[in-house]
């Protein structure tokens, strides 16, 4: 079954453009269960996020939602089933602080407690791989949907990152996306626009991800259309000055179909790798 990764802030907190999201989690879990999906969390860089507050966050999430049938647990190589958390902008906190939480001997260690989990750090620059390893994270993901925007989001660097992860017992989770355009909110960012090329961009990203045989592939997609990463159904639409990009000449659900196609391909290939 698929896994939805929710942007999450602690109760009462939100980003500067948004509303608090924790109240929505129970509804999302219930709906996910109805459709045989699992849910996990993308922990956002809220104010004063550190080893102590993260310990409390993880405890809160697992205590409150860990018993729900839609709560995601990942089967590890040792056969344990652990929650999995993506930690956005993890690099803003120094490895020494993360190590307090994420290494067995750390002062706030969550390891071998009922709240142990897999923690996945964001890799943006190449040097982050060493920091991630030192911090005690279990893996890394690349997040950005723009090929070439960062070291981590550049497809041609994935093989090297996967090799680093393999040799350090880390998970490598490449992130794919259908395209990118955020010039309606960041007019200066034109150089990071990536044309969808009628679905080819998305397929190229999936193809690059499959080449490195990852344990998980993440899809970076929002239904906030100002970044142009949505994969849900779309029909031509305009409101005032804004013209939304549609999927013509394809059907409104072409990106959902491509997601299904590549998910199935990934599943089949994974069976081969494991033989």
UniProtKB/TrEMBL annotation:
Q: How does it sit in the membrane?
A: Single-pass type II membrane protein
The record, for Pfam families, names: Glyco_hydro_99 (PF16317)
| Enzyme superclass (EC) | hydrolase
Query: Known EC number(s)?
Result: 3.2.1.130
**GO molecular-function annotation terms?**
glycoprotein endo-alpha-1,2-mannosidase activity
State the reactions this protein catalyses: N-{alpha-Glc-(1->3)-alpha-Man-(1->2)-alpha-Man-(1->2)-alpha-Man-(1->3)-[alpha-Man-(1->2)-alpha-Man-(1->3)-[alpha-Man-(1->2)-alpha-Man-(1->6)]-alpha-Man-(1->6)]-beta-Man-(1->4)-beta-GlcNAc-(1->4)-beta-GlcNAc}-L-asparaginyl-[protein] + H2O = alpha-D-glucosyl-(1->3)-D-mannopyranose + N(4)-{alpha-D-Man-(1->2)-alpha-D-Man-(1->3)-[alpha-D-Man-(1->2)-alpha-D-Man-(1->3)-[alpha-D-Man-(1->2)-alpha-D-Man-(1->6)]-alpha-D-Man-(1->6)]-beta-D-Man-(1->4)-beta-D-GlaNAc-(1->4)-beta-D-GlcNAc}-L-asparaginyl-[protein] (N-glucan mannose isomer 8A1,2,3B1,2)
InterPro entries given in the database record = Glyco_Hydrolase_99
Q: Where in the cell is it found?
A: Golgi apparatus membrane
- Give UniProt keywords alphabetically: Golgi apparatus, Hydrolase, Membrane, Signal-anchor, Transmembrane, Transmembrane helix
Cite a GO CC annotation. Answer: Golgi membrane
Q: Where is the signal peptide?
A: none
Q: Which Gene3D superfamilies match?
A: Glycosidases
Q: Does the keyword Membrane apply?
A: yes
Q: Which PANTHER family match?
A: ENDO-ALPHA-1,2-MANNOSIDASE, GLYCOPROTEIN ENDO-ALPHA-1,2-MANNOSIDASE
Similarity section: Belongs to the glycosyl hydrolase 99 family.
Record protein name field: Glycoprotein endo-alpha-1,2-mannosidase
Lineage of the organism: Eukaryota, Metazoa, Chordata, Craniata, Vertebrata
């Amino acid at each position: 079954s698929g896994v939805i990764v929710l942007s999450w802030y602690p109760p009462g907190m939100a980003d500067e453009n948004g509303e608090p999201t924790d109240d929505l989690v129970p509804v999302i879990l219930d709906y996910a269960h109805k459709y045989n999906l699992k849910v996990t969390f993308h922990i956002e860089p809220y104010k004063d996020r550190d080893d102590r507050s993260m310990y409390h966050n993880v405890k809160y999430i697992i205590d409150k939602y860990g018993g729900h049938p839609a709560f995601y647990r990942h089967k590890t190589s040792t056969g344990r089933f652990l929650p999995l958390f993506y930690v956005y902008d993890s690099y803003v906190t120094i490895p020494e602080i993360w190590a307090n939480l994420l290494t067995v001997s750390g002062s706030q260690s969550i390891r071998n407690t009922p709240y142990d989990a897999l923690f996945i750090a964001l890799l943006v620059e190449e040097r982050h791989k060493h920091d991630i390893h030192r911090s005690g994270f279990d893996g890394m993901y690349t997040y950005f949907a723009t090929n070439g925007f960062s070291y981590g989001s550049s497809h041609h660097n994935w093989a090297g990152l996967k090799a680093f992860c393999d040799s350090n017992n880390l998970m490598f989770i490449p992130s794919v996306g259908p395209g990118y355009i955020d010039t309606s909110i960041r007019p200066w960012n034109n150089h990071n626009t990536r044309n969808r090329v009628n679905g080819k961009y998305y397929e190229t990203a999936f193809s690059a991800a499959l080449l490195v045989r990852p344990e998980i592939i993440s899809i970076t997609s929002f239904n906030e259309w100002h970044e142009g990463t949505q994969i849900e159904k779309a029909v031509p639409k305009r409101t005032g000055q804004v013209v939304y990009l549609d999927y013509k000449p394809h059907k409104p659900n072409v990106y959902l179909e491509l997601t299904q196609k590549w998910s199935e391909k990934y599943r089949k290939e994974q069976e081969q790798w494991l033989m």
